[in-house]
Amino acid sequence: MRDENQDTIVHAKVEDTQGPKVKRKDACLVVIYGQDLGRKYNIVGRDLRIGRATTNDICISQDAVSREHAYIIVDDFGIKIRDNDSTNGTYINDNKIHEAYLRDGDLVKVGRSIFKFLSGDNIESSYHEEIFRLSTVDGLTQVFNRRYFMETLERELSRARRYDRPLALLIFDIDYFKRCNDTYGHRAGDFVLRRIAELVTMRARKVDVVARYGGEEFTVILPEIEIRGAHIFAEKIRKLIEDETFAFEGRKIPVTISIGVADVDSSVANADDLIQTADRRLYAAKAGGRNRVVDHD
């Protein structure tokens, strides 16, 4: 993963009296979702330009990004980001901003790319911790990624077999998600993915593992749960999503999910068998009209 500092870009300093001067700390932006995943951009007492044009310090080659989209500005009070009247806006922690100071851990979204702002006395340590986290967590939704899901499912299946304990798996995806992207735009689609991940994580137990399996598809590993209990949980999250108001930039987006449920029985020899059973039932739910749960063939 590259760590490159490009030529210094000088901008006029911004007058700001909102707070006392702060001690200058090392800081950087790390790509946690999008192209150049894991790349680090150091902020070393200089301003940076972000945009689609190749002349920018941080170049993001996406149609949703303006040629000169935003500025990172270093002043006596900290480090701020200023939107440059871009077409699609700049977001901090999902809030659209014109100008705002960054705090350690803030998520900055430009187009479909997401950066994490790191600041402190030891950002190298923080950076390496973030890279390790990216190996297990999906940058967009902040739930576990497919790799971590597969490793955990293998481990939980082995434990269930060894101790003769129940284990269930849910696979669900968003109904007509392509239509959502085509109608409301990919930024709205990203919002829906993040919100669904939040809602399901809030409803899940601590021992459950919620993961993004790929695209608009998610999984939930349910240790110590038999098929009936898994069906009940699946119905709860299906209804939760159906009743939720998904509103993005003033527009309401209808969202439902279809769910396939499987548990460990005599037909399951390995993790792939369990996944295939849940996936088959997911497609049965979609074929049966969507916005429903299927737990048997």
Automatic annotation (TrEMBL):
Q: What Gene3D superfamilies would the database entry show? A: 2.60.200.20, 3.30.70.270
Task: Spell out the protein name for this chain.
Answer: diguanylate cyclase
Note the CDD domains from the entry.
FHA (cd00060), GGDEF (cd01949)
Record GO terms (molecular function): diguanylate cyclase activity
Q: Which Pfam families match?
A: FHA (PF00498), GGDEF (PF00990)
InterPro entries associated with the record: Diguanylate_Cyclase, FHA_dom, GGDEF_dom, Nucleotide_cyclase, Rev_trsase/Diguanyl_cyclase, SMAD_FHA_dom_sf
Classification via SUPFAM superfamilies: Nucleotide cyclase, SMAD/FHA domain
Q: Which SMART domains match?
A: FHA (SM00240), GGDEF (SM00267)
Q: Where's the FHA domain? A: 48-97
Looking at the record, the residues that make up the GGDEF domain are 165-297
Per the UniProt entry, what species is this protein from, by scientific name?
Enhygromyxa salina
Q: Which residues form the signal peptide?
A: none
Give the EC class as a word: transferase
Q: Which reaction(s) are listed as its catalytic activity?
A: 2 GTP = 3',3'-c-di-GMP + 2 diphosphate
- Can you tell which superkingdom this protein's organism belongs to? Bacteria
Q: Which Enzyme Commission number(s) are listed? A: 2.7.7.65
